[in-house]
Design a protein that fits this description.
- The complex is a heterodimer of chains A (115) and B (115).
- By secondary structure, chain A is mostly beta strands.
- Chain A has strands at 3-6, 10-14, 19-21, 23-26, 31-38, 44-50, 56-58, 64-68, 73-78, 87-95, 103-105, 109-114.
- In chain A, the strands form 3 sheets. In chain A, strands 2, 5, 6, 10, 11 and 12 form a 6-stranded mixed beta sheet that branches. Chain A has a 4-stranded antiparallel beta sheet with strand order 3-9-8-7, with no helix packed on it. Chain A has a two-stranded antiparallel sheet with strand order 1-4.
- In chain A, strand 7 and strand 8 form a beta hairpin.
- Chain A is globular and about 45 Å long.
- Chain B is globular, with a radius of gyration of 13 Å.
- In chain B, the strands form 2 sheets. In chain B, strands 2, 4, 5, 6, 9, 10 and 11 form a 7-stranded mixed beta sheet that branches. In chain B, strands 1-3-8-7 form a 4-stranded antiparallel beta sheet, with no helix packed on it.
- Helix content of chain B is 0%, strand content 50%.
- Chain B is mostly beta strands and 115 residues long.
- The chains are: A mainly beta (115), B mainly beta (115).
- The A-B interface holds A 4, 32, 36, 41-46, 49, 51, 90, 92, 94, 96, 98-108 and B 4, 31-33, 35, 40-45, 48, 50, 55-56, 58, 90, 92, 94, 96, 101-109, 111.
């Protein structure tokens, strides 16, 4: 069975400060890893994903995440946050192959960016 | 291109009633998954369908059922509604065998309130 633990339920930061949202996972098989963002009263938007290859993956809006196999972690970082980054962030894992449509999510981290 | 669409957007039901939620996947996507997101938690996997067959089921009671139609749209049915069924129900589609096959694209969700 898979599980995902997001270590911080709430992260308040000031605008232009760096931020890290932590995610640990457990799985007995090789997995895909994802970060999603959810704005109030909306569905989930894919932020970035790790499939294979380079352990550092980046999004178009400045976020990056690093896959660490030995620590089973996939932490999300941004060097300088904006007010518009305020949202709920979810880390997720899914099996490869036919079960890729069955994802296990963490309980989310609320990122609040203050002016 | 249209994304994943879900209907209705909001729904209010009373305990014991039945509800049907609908999902239309992105054109060309043959796999649909359903998730339940209770307030303050991450989404939980309910069902995965591919080519009209159930390919995975989460830890939900038999009151929950789903099906996929020849045009790959899907319905989620919940019988004998309980207060605890109040949640945001998310549908996601993906395209097994094609580019980005591991990526699920989420709809905006149906918010169900059971009174």
């Amino acid at each position: 069975a898979q599980s995902v633990t997001q270590l911080d339920s709430q992260v308040p930061v000031f605008e232009e400060a760096p931020v890290e949202l932590r995610c640990n996972y457990s799985s007995s098989v090789s997995v895909y890893l994802f970060w999603y963002v959810q704005y109030p009263n909306q569905g989930l938007q894919l932020l970035l994903k790790y499939l294979s290859g380079s352990t550092l993956v980046k999004s178009i809006n400045g976020f990056e995440a690093e896959f660490n196999k030995s620590q089973t972690s996939f932490h999300l970082r941004k060097p300088s946050v904006h007010i518009s980054d305020t949202a709920e962030y979810f880390c997720a894992v899914s099996d490869r192959g036919t079960n890729a449509g069955k994802s296990t999510f963490g309980d989310g981290t609320t990122l609040t960016v203050k002016p | 291109d249209a994304g994943v669409t879900q209907s209705p957007t909001h729904l209010i039901k009373t305990r014991g009633q039945h509800v049907t939620l609908r999902c239309s996947p992105i054109s060309g996507h043959k796999s649909v998954s359903w998730y339940q997101q209770v307030l303050g938690q991450g989404p939980q996997f309910i069902f995965q369908y591919y080519e009209k067959e159930e390919r995975g089921r989460g830890n939900f009671p038999d009151r929950f059922s789903a099906r996929q139609f020849p045009n790959y749209s899907s319905e989620l049915n919940v019988n004998a509604l309980l207060l605890g069924d109040s949640a945001l129900y998310l549908c996601a589609s993906r395209s097994p065998g094609l580019a980005n096959q591991e990526t699920q694209y989420f709809g905006p969700g149906t918010r169900l309130l059971v009174l």
